Amino acid sequence: MVRVMELDGKTVSSVDIAALALHNYGHFTSMRVEDLRVRGLAWHLERLVHDCRALFAVDLDADRVRALVRRVCRRVPSPSVVRVTVFAPGLDLGRPAAPVRPRVLVTSRPAPAPDLPPLRLATAGYRRDLPEVKHVGLFGSVYQRRAAQLRGFDDVLFVHPDGHITEGATWNVCFFDGRLVWPRSPCLPGVTMRLLNAALGVGAGPAEIEPTEAVLTADDVPGMRAAFVTNAAVGVRPVARVDEVVFAGEPAVLETLRRAYAGIALEEI
Questions:
Q1: Which of 41, 70, 142, 161 has the most CB atoms around it within 10 Å of its CB?
Q2: Is residue 96 part of a domain?
Q3: Does position 202 have pLDDT exceeding 80, yes or no?
Q4: How far apart, in Å, are the Cα atoms of 93 and each of 22, 36, 72, 86, 128?
Q5: Do strands 211-214 and 266-268 pair parallel, antiparallel, or not at all (unpaired)?
């Protein structure tokens, strides 16, 4: 198992990343890399630039990030999941508004299998801080995932305090009722979700699927025929159940979604 970790293109020390562990302030994106290519690379870089402005009021050099990612990807087997984390070692916890210089941490891990089994999801009332930003503040998400697993489920599906379904701990969710329905609610606009919506209907074959958005609550789940989660590491993964609602599965729909996603052109890093 090959794992690589570099900070601004250099070997990382414990001192270098102490602020990340102790302050837990920063943002990241994760991407599946195949032969030095990535689906939606431009959108991953766009996310990093946007979130850097939001958290640090600094413009991030996307070309430099790309070069740092390329350095790591050349050292690891393909496919792999590469995470780019932007944080500021000089951040003063007492004065976080003071100017800082964000740094770029690039890490890798082996990519999971693309055909993982369906997930069993438990709903939980929870809303991530600043949901439109992919930040490193994962305590609440991991805690809710752990609580769901202790109840016998695989993962957790968040429900906003207003009752609206939003997202999962590390993925977006969609439902199928003849259309592909994404929750209309405050959540992270996932790169895989955006790519899939763009790809549907473009070479997807005869079983074209219309993506749409709607406000969804737990009461809407029993009326759905299937559900799926999406993220960059696994692409599209089916859902077996949400709480007590069990889905029979829609193999043809899953195949259409996976085929549409697989057909997306990969961008050179």
A1: 41
A2: yes
A3: no
A4: 9, 37, 30, 16, 21
A5: unpaired
Instruction: Give CA 269 to chain center in angstroms.
Output: 19
CB atoms < 10 A from the CB of 105, how many?
21
β-strand partners of 229: 173, 237
pTM: 0.93
Supply the pLDDT for residue 206.
45
- Find out whether 83 and 106 touch, Cβ atoms under 8 Å: yes
End-to-end alpha carbon distance in the chain: 22
How many angstroms separate the CA atoms of 187 and 202, rounded? 26
Contact 56, 102 (CB under 8 A): yes
Task: Give the CA diameter of the chain.
Answer: 58
Tens of pLDDT, residues 65-82: 999 999 999 999 999 999
In angstroms, the CA 78 to CA 83 distance is 14
Q: Is-contact 185 166, C-beta < 8 A?
A: yes
Helix (H, G, I), strand (E, B) or coil at 210: coil
Residue 114 has pLDDT above 80, yes or no: no
**3-class secondary-structure state, position 61:** coil
Domain that holds residue 94: 5-110
Query: What are the structure tokens assigned to 121, written together?
Result: 């999801």
Of 110, 139, 156, at which residue does a domain stop?
A: 110
Rg (CA), the chain: 19
